[in-house]
Amino acid sequence: MKPIKQRLLTPGPTVVPERVLEALGKSTLYHRSPKFKEIFLEARKRLKKLFRTEGEVLILTSSGTGAMEAAVTNLFNPGDSAVVVVGGKFGERWKELCETFGVKPIVIEVEWGKSVRLEDIEEALKANSDVKGVLVQICETSTGTIHDVKGIGDLLKNYPDVLLIADGITAYGVYDIPTDEWGIDVGITGSQKALMTPPGLAIISLNEKAQKRLLEVETRSYYFDLKKELKKQQSGQTAYTAGVNLVVALNEALKMIEEEGLENVAKRHERLAQATRAGVRALGLELLSENPANGVTAVLSPKGINGQDIVKIAREKYGITIAGGQEHLKGKIFRLSHMGYVDIFDILTGLEVVEFALYELGYRNFKFGDSVSAAMETYQNL
Question: Where is the Aminotransferase class V domain positioned along the sequence (predicted)?
Fold first, then answer.
């Protein structure tokens, strides 16, 4: 029997709320019109509140990777060095971007599922006096792991010439992140994660320190020229044609976050994350991460069961799309998202389909409903 309904429980793209879809479907505005300028400036103002920054927040028409590329091409000259934390697929992306644009990556390899040690970063900084930046994920989405970015920011107070550039693509809107207080010079996110908007927009914050660096670095990108974007966006325009409907939709999603309250949004994500972890543990399963994130939970597949088969059964038989592992973790884990437009009933549905899939694959060290009961009890008691 084929499913009659499809449900999305992946760590991006995430489910888009009805309000945001309605905003997305409105007639397209001319991107140089006064009306779009008004909405664009509203969205930028709301993003500054989300980031909790006094710096500038720019909206780029691209995926989150576009903002990552913009950070590398606008903030480093060829031959500069940067400490790069590689503890998953997206840490590897920082490394690849550096190599592509002539920046020397000083790589700190972290076992996938573990967080970087602050002493390893400090050791790299002491051994390389010419370092211009530290590139890290707040949440490494591929492993569901949080890095201590606040701790890194505290450490970098002793290195005033080093920028902290943080990929928060699955962190902003999941956590209440005080960008300035943590010492994040450049923060990055994307529309399609906790911001509850379809893919296509990247957001990058730049504090005064980062803006000063912009002026010191030779421009090496045409489309992702942040100096050009900064000048235009301060006046309510973009350098090139904006993703107009996406910006309108993003502004509506940001209104929803404001209405719920950023602190409440963060608490909701924490409750859902803890309920999910309790649920999978009740099935006798283990988490990959030693420091699990509140946006996505990575679960080790039982011995003898391919995690991709769990994903396939969930999607094809039950209409629920969850995520598998990447690179060497493919087949070894599956991932359950709990970010964005998600509530406890989404979590219970996700756990139920995991039970169905595991049972079909021969793993039966549980009774139906064990994960749901554990999740419900944890959620109720938080």
Answer: 22-327
